[in-house]
Amino acid sequence: MSDRDQKLAIVTGASRGLGAAIAERLGARGYHVVAVARTTGALEELDDRIRAVGGAATLAPMDITQPAAMIQLVQAVLDRWGGCDLWAHAAIHAAPLAPAPHVDPKDMDRSVALNITATHGLSALFDPLLRARNGTALFFDDPRAGQPFFGAYGATKAAQIAFARSWQAENQRLGPRVVIATPNPMPTAVRARFFPGEDRSTLSPCRTEADRILAELAI
Prior knowledge:
Keywords: Oxidoreductase. One of its GO terms (molecular function) is oxidoreductase activity. InterPro entries: KR_dom, NAD(P)-bd_dom_sf, SDR_fam. Residues 7-190 form the Ketoreductase domain. By secondary structure, the protein is α/β, with parallel strands linked by helices. Helices cover 48% and strands 14% of the residues. It has seven helices and six strands. It has helices at residues 17-28, 40-52, 67-81, 105-132, 151-170, 189-194, 206-217; strands at 8-12, 32-37, 56-61, 86-89, 136-140, 177-181. The chain has a six-stranded parallel beta sheet, with helices on both faces. Helix 1 (17-28) runs parallel beside helix 2 (40-52), helix 1 (17-28) packs across helix 7 (206-217) and helix 3 (67-81) packs parallel to helix 4 (105-132). The chain is globular. The two termini are 19 Å apart. The mean pLDDT is 96.
């Protein structure tokens, strides 16, 4: 099988949590996974897990807020695979909880840069890759907008999903397909920072949510 016949998934935010679980499950389903995240060590551990289930991955230790790096990634994907079947966007900046007027300006800037600006930039870059294969863009909602102390995270996550819903509505006829999934609460590191002391035994494992979401995608 040539690379251009291989199913390809790009997972942004693939180093941990739901992004890592999605990448693992896609690898087990026969996708070659391009795993994008800033943490090289976590990506290498993910690669080991994907290989253990018979899959294959290309590791891309990059910062998605850097346009030049993302352009380089897209060109490499285009040259080797000619397109992309699935883009799963799990990257997020979760600013520490704080009263709205007291959110650290650096945290707000980073939240806007990663959760909104980078999402827009990636959609522009990945749209041609997805169109080339009639692919799917997958986003993950976390409805925190308006909740106490979630000013930075809630506002920018809501803006990200509003952007995705517009893209989804625009693509109803011609694609690419845009899907917005809402995972059940999971025992992630981000959630542990938001809810310290929570009983994590009641939460749904990331792999369980990954399996459920991919089954609903029917891919």
